[in-house]
Group III truncated hemoglobin
Amino acid sequence: MKKLESREDIELLVNAFYAKVIDDETIGLFFKDIVKVDWDLHLPKMYSFWETILFGQMSYKGNPMSMHFPVNKIKAMEKHHFERWLQLWKLTIEENFTGENASMAITKSENIANLMSYKMEMARKQ
Ligand code: HEM
C-alpha cells in the first residue's frame, strides 16, 4: 500500500472519495440537489485544503466552516450525515493509502467533522 505524500496522491484520494459521496444515499443529495456543486471549482479547493492540512502548503485560503452554514439552512446537516461523511472518507483512505499522513488525514477529518457537526447544530438552535 502506498504512502500519502504528494499533491497527486491527494487528488486521487479526493476524487475517489467524491465518487463514493455522489452515489451515496445519505449524503449524496447535499452535493447534487441542495447545492449543485461545480466540480471544476470544488475539487481543486479540496486538493488545496488537504495539501494545506497535511503538508503545510498554504495553498488553501478559504474558510471551511462558513461554506456549510447556508447548506445547513436549506437542509439540516445532522450527526448521522457527518458520521457517513467520515465513514466514506476513512474507507477511501484505507483502500488507497497507509502511513503517518494517511492516519493524520483521518484524525484531522474527525476533529473538523465533530466541530462542524456541533456548529451546525448550534446554528439551528439560534
Ligand atoms: C455531512 C458532511 C458534509 C457535507 C454534506 C458537506 C457539503 C459541502 C458542500 C455542499 C460544499 C460546497 C461546495 C461548493 O462550493 O459548491 C462544501 C464545501 C467544503 N467542504 Fe464540506 N461538507 C461536509 C463535511 C465536510 C468536512 C467534514 C470537511 C473537512 C474535513 C469539509 C470541507 C469542505 C471544504 C474545505 C469546502 C470548500 C469551502 C470553500 O469553498 O472554501 N466538509 N461542503
Notes: The first helix runs from residue 7 to 22. The radius of gyration is 14 Å. The mean pLDDT is 97.
